[in-house]
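Pipeline run #58 for the internal structure catalog. This entry was flagged by the ingest filter as a single-chain record with no existing model, so it goes straight to prediction. Upstream metadata was stripped on purpose; only the residue string is passed forward. Reviewer on rotation: M.T. Logging verbosity set to normal.
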Amino acid sequence: MKRITTQAFPKIKYLGLVIVFQMISCAPHKSVVSESMAIGEEKNTTTHKIAFLNYEAKKTDDEIDIKLINKIIVEGKLKKRMLGKEQPRSGDFYLIQVDEKLEPIEEINIQNPLVRRIEYTNKLKEFVKKEVKLDSAKFSVRIQLNPKSKFIMIKQLDNINKLITIDEL
């Protein structure tokens, strides 16, 4: 039988301490309950949802046809929108969330996907802006869903009274 020497014992002791500390640090921690929860206030139980909507826009003669390709609705919350976004331009669209009675709840501006604005440098190394008009384009929209929303409507800014499309959520 081999005896543990005095030199080996401190190494085993330190190794054991390291293992114990690692086990303690990996153990699950109890969640801390705030005082307001302890008093009895209920937690907000509404779940936030995000909708990812993919559309295809086609231009035929003087009409614009927009069709929903697919939609994905997941739980989550979008970050706050940045202030100072571009002002709507002629030809842009409004995406409007509406309730069961088709009353508007919230609306956002969408740049016209059939008009691409391109910046490039010319031979003199100056920036030049150009608009390219397309016959068809696919575009995606990501929105924070209002719990009361039942439908999504798209209207053109120039002709707000004319409905381009309405889709059920």
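catalog note: The two ends are 77 Å apart (CA to CA).
catalog note: DSSP finds two helices and nine strands in the chain.
status: ready for reviewer M.T.
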